[in-house]
Amino acid sequence: MTSDHESGDTMSPRAAAIRELLNEWDFIGVVPDGILDEYDCLIAPISERLSRGAGSDELYTFLDTELPDHFGLGGGRSPASERFVARVLRLRE
């Protein structure tokens, strides 16, 4: 289990892996500043979708809604989002 340094909560291995992938993607560029929990709001919804067997289309639909609504970013697929989704889908295995 990985510990969440901000709240003291523990994360499941899947949640920790999703956090790592989100921080590698770092779509708003905060990780170099040491902010490692900025994307934590996305972990549970992504994990829930994986548990339900969601595929890439459902994950893209979620990201295309959540990123503009929550982070003020434009939607749409990009090479970085495609890499992220492909890597997240491997967590189902």
Outline the secondary-structure elements:
Elements: E1 2-3, E2 10-11, H1 13-25, H2 43-51, H3 56-71, H4 79-89
Antiparallel strand pairs: 1-2
Helix pairs in contact: 1-2, 1-4
Strand percent estimate: under 5%
Number of DSSP E strands: 2
Q: Which radius of gyration do the C-alpha atoms yield? A: 13 Å
Order of helices and strands: EEHHHH
**Regions with little confidence, pLDDT below 50 for 5+ residues:** 1-8
Q: How many angstroms separate the termini?
A: 19 Å
Number of helices: 4
Mean pLDDT: 89
What structural class do the secondary elements suggest? mainly alpha
Question: What is the strand arrangement across the widest sheet?
Answer: 1-2
Gross morphology:
globular
The major beta sheet can be summarized as: 2 strands, antiparallel
**Helix proportion range:** 40-55%
What does this structure look like?
By secondary structure, the protein is mainly alpha-helical. It contains four helices and two strands, in the order E-E-H-H-H-H. The chain has helices spanning 13-25, 43-51, 56-71, 79-89, and strands at residues 2-3, 10-11. Strands 1-2 form a two-stranded antiparallel sheet. The longest helix is centred in the C-terminal third of the chain and has 16 residues, at 56-71. The model is unreliable at 1-8 (pLDDT under 50).
